[in-house]
Design a protein that fits this description.
With about 350 residues, the chain is an alpha/beta fold. The protein is built from 16 helices and nine strands. The structure holds nicotinamide-adenine-dinucleotide and magnesium ion.
Length: about 350
Amino acid sequence: MKVFYDRDADRRVLSNKTIAVIGYGSQGRAHARNLHDSGVDVVVGLRAHSRSEAIAREDGLRFASVEEATAMADVVMLLVPDEEQPAVYLHSVGDRLRPNAYLAFAHGFAIHFGTVVPPKNANVFMVAPKSPGRLVRSEYEAGRGTPCLIAVHQDPSGNTRELAIAYAAAIGGGRAGILETTFKDETETDLFGEQAVLCGGVSALVTAGFETLVESGYAPEMAYFECLHELKLIVDLMHERGIGGMREGISNTAEYGDYTRGPRIVGEEVRKAMRTVLGEIQDGSFAREWVREHAAGSGGFDRFREAARSHPIEQVGERLRALMPWLAPQDDELKFRVC
Ligand code: NAD
Ligand code: MG
């Protein structure tokens, strides 16, 4: 993959432009503040009576309604939740976009699956930081940055890629690395990663391990420590040093069990299921299902959440975490969306 850095970015393409950042959540706040501190003219687009108004004011940023912000901007970065983007685009953005404006996203879902269809004269690009907004901001403040993916979907102006690189650099990405991909690849790999491994795969693996021990008569507290709590130690090692580095940090007994038992747990059946899940992402059936679920009021989604909340692993976890007060979240950004 091609990697760009600050030296490849021509920040002058942003110098006479106003950027509207729509939504002031995890990504929105980080993008808006970093752009502003990089000297870019920013206006935050908020819905009426948004609780984010007070925060944006305190952060020293100007804000307006989503409609007004869109109308005054050369670049519109849409940072409302993916499932809200079609409605926000349809009601407040689409017909207020300036001709030849740039419409930007931090994830490819809406464009790749066609839930947002911009006019042909709009330039469409993506800048997707590979980290939660909180880190996008704190790394920028520390003089560093988080890696970003960029992609171009429509380019009638002929300089959309240049603009995407400049935007990514202005939020700090150029200090770490800006990698070029496509809306298709970003969307499909992102969904696959979160479904098969990071969220779906890991939650199911942890839960199955916990249930296996408890069903065999072991104390739920023991099962929780062994199958969930200690996961962080292993993941931190993998994150910092890769799988090989993690194996250097565990006992030889654990390492031997890893080689000989791991592939029996995640065997051909699991790989087959992974390929099926990837197929449902690629053929659009997962996206259609999720869009339908949201449109139908998310009743099924709520039932999944309720069932998960009442699982014994949550009750025992609550009791055990209370014994470890240092685990309490540091701030109110509990939601670490994996992106
Ligand atoms: P978020 O839920 O943290 O914030 C969304 C913001 O939009 C909130 O301020 C909310 O009040 C506002 N909002 C919701 N509905 C709205 C509406 N109808 N009109 C106006 N504002 C509305 O979302 P996020 O996690 O920042 O995600 C934004 C985008 O960034 C998504 O495309 C997501 O996939 C992408 N992304 C997120 C992360 C991450 O770590 N959170 C990382 C990379 C990319
Ligand atoms: Mg992801």
